[in-house]
Design goal:
There is one protein chain. By secondary structure, this protein is an alpha+beta fold. It is 34% helix and 16% strand. The strands form two sheets. The chain has a five-stranded antiparallel beta sheet with strand order 3-2-5-6-7.
Length: 141
């Protein structure tokens, strides 16, 4: 078999590696492959310090940085590749997480943001709720 030829029976995995978007999905770092593609296209995923497109091939030893909500950065090192979904415990073996633990200030900021979101008032009642409120008040408007 030629060194750059695809293995028989596999879609995205070659002897060189696996597509980034597929690997991110299989490793359970994103819920879906399309979500991983969106993150790659949006510049949220870097491989070896450079912005990566979804079709980039990843190999064991590659360093991946994923920018998450709130500016948090998840730093990973690829330990293995797979082109099909595996159990979550096996998926965690595909990478080594080198993300530093959050500082006490970051934890406090997260807790404050959670409390702020919980304190926001609920939205206005929708049609069904308005009708229910009218009935409870005894109006037939």
């Amino acid at each position: 078999m030629a060194p750059n030829a695809k293995k028989p029976g596999t879609g995205a995995e070659t002897e060189e590696g696996t597509r980034l978007d597929l690997w991110l999905d299989v490793a359970c770092l994103f819920k879906t492959r399309s979500e991983a593609q969106r993150a790659c296209r949006g510049g949220k995923v870097n491989v070896n310090g450079r912005a990566a497109r979804p079709n980039r091939l990843v190999r064991p030893g590659d360093e991946i940085t994923v920018t998450r909500a709130g500016g948090r950065r998840q730093q990973l090192v690829v330990r293995g590749t797979a082109d099909r979904h595996v159990p979550r415990a096996d998926a965690r073996a595909l990478y080594e997480d080198r993300t530093p633990p959050p500082t006490p200030e970051e934890l406090e900021i997260r807790q404050f943001e959670r409390a702020f979101r919980a304190a926001t008032p609920p939205s206005a009642p929708d049609r069904r709720d308005r009708r229910l409120l009218r009935r409870l008040k005894g109006r037939s408007d």
